[in-house]
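A quick aside before the break. I want you to see a complete sequence-to-structure record at least once, exactly as it would be stored in a machine-readable document. Don't worry about memorizing anything.
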Amino acid sequence: MKLSPVMKITTAAMLMGLAIIFNKLLVIQIPPFIRIGIAAVPIMMSSVLLGPVYGFFVGAIADVLGYFMFDTSNFPYSPFVTISFVILGVLPYFLLMLTRKLRYQKHPIPYSYVLMGAIWTFLLVFILMNDSVTVSGHTYQIDLLWKILIPIISAVVFGFFTWFIYYLNRRFQKKVLDYPSCPSPHEIAFMVLLLHILVNIVWGSFWKSIFFQMDFMTIFFVQSIILIFSFPIDTMLLTTVFMTYYRYVDKARSNKVE
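That is the input. The structure line, written in tokens, reads:
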């Protein structure tokens, strides 16, 4: 069922407030450029539930308003961050439109495997070819222990997460006819993974290398390490929220109208 304009505006305001809170308060910040948090979750939700136009404004306003009212980092305002938030607010709607035809299949979307394999391969090649990384003038050694641990840990996390999403999707398949508008766990995983790669790794590494005057590949490597843990967390949060919303809220609203 479609939401009324009033409900859309109210929902957008709520998601915008959550994005600001998550981005400014519930975040782990490691100077100069590492940020680990879940601010992307409400922005992606706004795109899926309300559409790309609302998602655009939720993402843009959440960043601009959050910076000028609540930022304490002492960094100058950067439109690069706003662009990241805008992409997170616009693309999810279109990505899920593309994957809707795959909603009823039991097997994971193969592109997710390809993307995770590409990230894992990059991490493996990078640590094998480099013995250290330099961040903000500090050099960190990549000794033999880390050359072994990083590929193993990333492979274990990706492997367990793939199994977990497969398990969730099996449960989803039993209920998909009850709420067909709900994106499947496989769709959500693909959407979140692709957005993390585009926004955080590719685009994020590009603008951060300019803003902080650091080596692009070093930032790319660090952003890839962060993805190993942030991608599963965001996916599980979105999967839980969407399945709950479409199972109870949206279904209850539809039954009320009928």
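Two observations worth writing down. Helices lie at 5-24, 40-50, 52-70, 79-99, 110-129, 144-175, 185-211, 216-257. Residues 131 and 142 are 5 Å apart (CA to CA). We'll return to this after the break.
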